[in-house]
Design brief:
By secondary structure, this protein is α+β, with helices and mostly antiparallel strands. The chain has one domain (8-117). The protein is built from two helices and seven strands, in the order βααββββββ. It has helices at residues 12-26, 30-38; strands spanning 8-9, 41-47, 52-57, 62-67, 78-79, 88-98, 108-117. Strand 3 (52-57) and strand 4 (62-67) form a beta hairpin.
């Protein structure tokens, strides 16, 4: 299964640093690395339209499944990606940060934190 890509590929410039970060987070767990190579791991990608997509990506950079959020979080609806490789903007995560206002002094919002941009740049720099 790891030899053929049934979905789309992560852009090469983005995949090299992305793969090393994913493998580093597994901390040489051999079972985890084997599952990453065979089945994949879930990551969140931001698309140029502004949507975030939870996807399953394998160690060869192939995105095989996308979680279809319109069916709800409990629906467990997955299928082939409905976007192209050119549509990927960044890989990252949401972080809750404080944004106090006069009306809501303890207000919090979720912000997208970029790990890797599609062109290979790291971090928040645009």
């Amino acid at each position: 299964m790891a030899n053929s890509c049934g979905g789309i590929k992560v852009p090469k410039e983005m995949w090299d640093p992305m793969r090393s970060m994913i493998e580093e987070s597994m901390r040489l767990n051999q079972r985890g690395l084997k599952l990453f190579a065979d089945e994949g791991t879930f990551v969140e990608l931001k698309i140029k339209s502004g949507a975030t997509k939870p996807v399953l990506v394998r160690a060869d950079g192939c995105i095989t499944y996308e979680h279809y959020e319109e069916f709800g979080i409990r629906a467990e609806k997955y299928g082939p990606p409905r976007f192209a490789s050119e549509d990927i903007e960044s890989w990252g995560y949401y972080e809750t940060v404080r944004r106090p206002t006069l009306r809501h002094p303890f207000g919090k919002v979720k912000e997208w934190r970029v790990r890797v941009w599609a062109d290979g740049r790291l971090g928040e720099a645009r």
